[in-house]
Amino acid sequence: MTHQTDYIGKPTNRVDGPAKVAGTAKYAAEFSVPNLLYGYVVNSPIAKGKITKIDAAPVLALPGVHQVFSHENVPSLAWFDRSYKDDVAPGGSPFRPLHDAEIKSSMQPVALVVADTFELARYAASILRIEYEQEAHETELAKHLDDAFEPGRGKTGYKPPKSRGNFGKGWKEGVAHMEAQYSHHAQHHNPMEMFATTVEWLGDKKLTVYDKTQGVFNSQQYISKIFGLSKEQARVVSKYTGGGFGSGLRPQYQLFLAVLASLELERSVRVSLTREQMFSFGHRPETLQHVALATAEDGSLTGINHFAVAETSQFEDFTENVVGWSGTLYDCKNVELGYRISKLDVFSPLDMRAPGAASGSIALEIAMDEMAYAAGLDPLEFRLRNYSDFDQAQDLPYSSKALRKCYAEGAAKFGWEKRTAEPGSMRDGKMLVGWGMGGGIWDASKMPATVKASLDADGHLTVSSGTNDIGTGTYTIMTQIAAESMGLPIEAVTFVLGDTTLPESPLQGGSWTAASVGNSVVEACTKLGEALLKQAQKMDHPAFKDAKIDDVQFANGQLRLHSDDTQAVVLRDIVQASGEPKMEAENSTVLAKLEMLKPPKYSMHAHNAVFVEVKVDPDLMTVHVTRVVNAVAAGRIINPKTARSQVLGSVVWGISSALMEESVMDHRFGRYMNHNYAEYHVPVNADIHDIDVIFVSEEDDKVNPLGIKGLGEVGLLGVAAAVTNAIYHATGKRVRDLPVTIDKLL
Predict the structure, then answer these.
(1) Distance, C-alpha 613 to centroid of its chain
(2) pLDDT given at position 109
(3) CB distance 223 to 251 below 8 Å
(4) SMART domains this protein is in (predicted)?
């Protein structure tokens, strides 16, 4: 079966764009359901201790208040930890909302007030009196490095690849050395759409749950296990998501609270979190890192040491791959890696765009810049001299690697050859000019996903899968793939997602959705094509009598012979001849799951190279990022328009990480103090200038049939380091504690 249309690879407009612009796209807190009640969450003001008294009587006396839920009146629910573990839960015991009187972190939800209106629920929550017994808390990572421990393998946590060679020997062999400590503070996801759940009560414990999530099946199995619901009783829907960045990978507590209230009150209930409450759960963990590098006379690396310590909660062991990339990205025989976590009185961290790699690449790529200076080499030349053509960490060849082309095309576009090496040597009038670079690597993954393809008697194709679209363009690229697969115009194809009544798909995360669901779309369409051919052979078309699927093509809404495209039959006529309202097919994920159990034959990754220009006022030390070129090699690009948007967002986030973004903890209270958009600083339009995105051509027939590697994470990597390196080039001041704020430069 070959495809005669060419939608794949073309810059197609978002098919969901009109609904979003017109306001008909509904988000979790926008569904109108009858007899709706509103819940408002009450959060703990202390970081550690226990609740000693809750006085709910004055609140319950208010007309229109239906209930105050707390640990004192929550019904008996599932007992074992496994019932509360979602698909991406780390090791340890998952947080159970309203489970007991214990306070584990600041802003922990301690009560839910349910009333006729949101305004009444909010007011009632403000007068609810709760007394606490406070205990001493520990939230400062730097003071608890000695308590850090190495997590175990598998489900109990990430452990970096084994060290190779002998770093001590490699360090002694080096003629140039660098060694430094790097740090960044916690960051919170802060998508535009805040977390909300609307539960529609349908009677007899049957619910339709409209949830803000990156995985409807994860939310479904979570509430099903806790509340003893069947899948039929717990339908979860998430058609549109206003940003996620990893915050929606795990079910958040408003889902639990909304379902609890609905089941207890036998009414529809909506629980929406405020912006402040968005700081009450997962975040990118604060991470402290140590990097040491040594090079030989020719600039080749003789030793790499990368060690990291990150925070986790007291109840879960959250881990991420911070240091592993350092053993893969560059060629070096002697590599020593270490990773530990330390338990603090904070909520469990959570995967955040490019988890682990975003933190690790900051330290590694700044260290590579420092090493280049120590070795007397241009930062780009230094990376090229240490280019890895083979994955030494996994002892595997790469399925493809176009990072050299990223370096070459990015540098050419940026004009890197005009850079002078000496810090402070480039100026634009009064302003100091700095040029820096960085780069990154991210796994190219594919997960099992099920897709159904259905062609109706009018010739309209509906393709469905329970995946999500968090703004990445999933609706659009799946429509493109399906249209090309079946030879139909875009307008004749509808892709349906975000509902647990649809075929099961994995969480949207890890940059695997395009590859996982996209390849399954092709498989489902191929099976539908086979069914259409069989039906055509039953009709009065002798040309197709002995045809096999490889003998035909689908184009312009027709089934045609390869050898003679005048021999054709219209697809809608085939469906009509079947006597059924539609013909459909579904792919199986069994083979995909079996394939995942096999040892890998190749190391499969996407790569990028980032070049940044900054201009720094020498008196005020204000930093302006004036130009960025991000060259990305990520296999086959399905839609350059939506893909470019992905990378543009990554670059903006990288600038934010370098210069602005941090969740500021006041350790006296164990509380994040800048929990709002006014004080949690992110870039605005005036902060962002020229960004060029280059997609380096890269064909890979080993990674998956469509050759997709994924874009969500890799575009972010190296950006923050490149900005920081450019600041050094402009000012001669090396800042290793991010974000690089003015006070650190003055």
Answers:
(1) 27
(2) 98
(3) yes
(4) Ald_Xan_dh_C
